[in-house]
Each structure stands twice: as structure tokens, then as C-alpha cells.
Write a structure and sequence with these properties.
heterodimer, A: mainly beta, Porin, 12-stranded antiparallel β-barrel, 4 helices, 14 strands, B: alpha+beta, Lipocalin, 8-stranded antiparallel beta barrel, 2 helices, elongated
Chain lengths: 298, 181
Amino acid sequence: MKKIFIIILAFVANNYCFAQDDLFSTMLNDSNNSKPTPVYATFKSTRLITGQSTENISSKHLNVVILHRFGLVKNGEDLYYNFLGFDNASIRFAFDYGITNNLMVGIGRSVIGKTYDGSIKYKILKQKKGSGAMPISLSYYGNMSINTSEWEDKMRDNYFSSRLQFCNSFLISRKFNEHLSLQIMPTFIHRNLVKFAENDLYVLGVGGSIKITRSTRLNFEYYPRLNGRNEQNQFDCLSVGFDIETGGHVFQLMLTNSVGMIEQTMITQTNISWPNQGLRLGFNLSRKFSFDRGNKSK
Amino acid sequence: MKKTFLFLLFSLINYIYVNAQIFSSKTGIVSFYSATPIEDIKAKSKNVVVAINIQNKQVVFIIYNTAFEFENKMMQEHFNEKYMESEKFPRSTFNGKINDELDLSKNGTYTISVNGKLTIHGVEKERNIAGTIDVKDGKLQISSALKIKIADHNISIPSLVKSNISEFIDVKIDATLLPKN
């Protein structure tokens, strides 16, 4: 009798244990694998302002970017005559394509120096969320440009290699929280031919982004040169930007002292500073297209 | 000694018996579709957790928002970053009970209606959802379709893209459940 009682008790107790364990919470615990998840949307665009960010284009996506930098917004009689500098626009077109989710290649053409450029950006590390996860994102960005304007001195022996300029940089970023992302970009610029300047320039760029609303961000970037600071009429590039994302497009409006739209010209051809009324308006307009047909959902 | 043995034996039988009432899957498929004259947006997740207790008829869905795959990866980022806020609300869940009187241990196709709580974007909504269950040789094949009003779950659409995103999202669910071990 006692035996049967114990058995029944055991049965009930065991059953009770399971009944108490609600299916919803059981499944929730079951599926709660603490695998680190990637952090997304550190920045709105592949560019912070003029320089690059750690964001890439996804695999099989094309990003078409139209960049404009206008003339100086300088006080004086021609301020409104030139409509805040809009009449002296400099343009660059860029096409970036994601070969994989981590590898992006691009080509571009700028008005300045009639320059063609080719670039590559590779995501080496991706910031993740979770215990023991990667705390930063790290990318490599390289760009080679060819100046195709006429030789300044036609009497000299001119070589094609003299037209080439190179940029190599690492981009290190961290999204600290939903609203703040910061980035540093150690950059090395090499120019094959220079007049009275250093061939090699080292720059330690810093930048950041503050999310204001779901669709807008405030950005800044500053590229102080570590050497070649005694060059005449050379200033560090400083920009403040505002991103507006409208679904398919990202508009990046900015105030900057630089007219260059690739690192090489941005860093080496900024010849006016903010305190000397060296401000320009500018914008990048980018549109992404997906060619990823394999992922089509039914 | 004998007592202990019997105790363990019954515990084991009980354990197996109780578990046999639960059918589950971690590879359920949930897809959604937003149709507007400007653009169609669709996405699919193949890693949805689904479970049914055939005794008390509890139905559970757990969907990881970041598992949704979009054809356009930019939309995928916007989905997580701007609308679902997946960092704050990583999961969408459903926890309900089948209303109908039916025995899911027997083979057959059943039309069901489920009452429960649908939680998306941290907002809980009482919903009645219709679907079918196909029971065949220890497998439960479930499918359902429902409409979700975005505004019901406090997801606001910026006015700039209002015409690109439908007010109602069509959701489809398909899963094959096996006894949970």
C-alpha cells in the first residue's frame, strides 16, 4: 500500500515538474543560444563624409554615388553672385560593387586632375555583440588614382608612373551604443611625383557619427597630417556632415574645407582652412541596387 | 531497493510520455510580404522555432528578427535598425492555445483556430489565427497565413517612405514538427 502510494506520488510530482515548465519559456530557453550576433548599421553609408567608413556594400549589390563639392562660401560681393559657391561645383562619380559581403571594389572619375581611380575595401574584423565577442570592426581600404590632365611641364621627361597616387588605410570603428559610433583611420598616402612636398604622407584620421533619428545622422571627420605639416597652403581636412536616408537613397550633406573626393586629393589638395573662411557645401548622393537574384524569397 | 527501482522506472516512463506530447521544429519557415504600387518588400526566415504540446494544445512560435533574409540587403538592415529595432527586441513571439476539440495523436488534416498573444516590437497583441495541421505518422505539418497591421505594434513608418511600405503585412508560416527529444 505504502509502495503504491510512493509510486503515485513520484508520478504526480514528476508530472507536476513538467507542467510547471511552460512550453513557451522552455522553448525560449532552448533557443536562447548566446552566440554573438553581428552589430549592424555602425554608419549609414560606406563613406563617413568624404573618407571611407567600415561599412561595405553587400554581396552582389551596386552602389552608385554622385559627389559634389561646391565653391567657397566666402563673404564678399560674389557670395550671392555665385549662389553660395554652387556655380563652382566639382564632381565625382563612383561605382562600388560588393563581390562578397566583405570585399568591395570601386571605380570613380573626378573632375579634379581629370582623375580616374580604382579602390578596394576588405572587412577584416566585424564587431559583434555578446560575451567575449569582437569589440571592433576593422577594414582595409586602398585606392589608386591616375591623374590624366596635361603635363604641367611638357619639356620634361614625363612618365606614366608620375601620374599615379596611392592611398592605403585601415579603418577601425566601434558602435558604442545605438546612437554613437566612432572611427579612426590611420592612412598612408604616396604620390609618385610631387613638386615641393613629401612623397609620403602619414595621416591619422578620426571620425564619428551620432544617430539623431532613425533616418538621420550627424557625422564628423578630421584628417590631421602627421608629417609634411610645414608645406605651404596645405591644411588638414575637416568636415561635418548630415546623413538623410530615404529608403533607397542616402543623401549626405556636408560642410568641408576640402574639394577632393578621394583620399589622395582630400588630404594633399586642401589649401584653405576653416578659420580662413575655407568652407564649402557639398553632398554625396548614393543609391544601392541589388543584383542578388539567388536570394529571391517566394 | 525495489522501491527505488520502481520510482526510477516510473519517472523514466513519465518523462518519455510527457515529452512525446511536445512536437517541435527549429527550422520553421516564416515569410512576409509588403505590397505597394512603388515596391514590393519580402523576406524569409528559415530558422523559426515552433512547438506544440498536443495534450494541452499550446502553440509557441519564436522568431529571430535578424534571421530574416531580404533580397535587398539594405532593406534587411533598415528592417532591423529602423523598424523592428532588433537590438532592443531581438525576438517576435506567439504563445497561444488551439480552441478546437481535436486529437492530434491521430492522423488527419485539421483546420484550427488559435487564440494567443502575438508579440512584435515589444508590443503584445491578442490575436485569433487560423491555420491547418496535417498529422501524418508522428509528424505535424502546420501552415497558416495572417495579416499584421504595422501600427498595432507601435512600428511607425517615416513619412518619407510611407508610400513604399504597406500598412498591412502578409505573413505566411510553414513548419514540420517532430516529437521533441
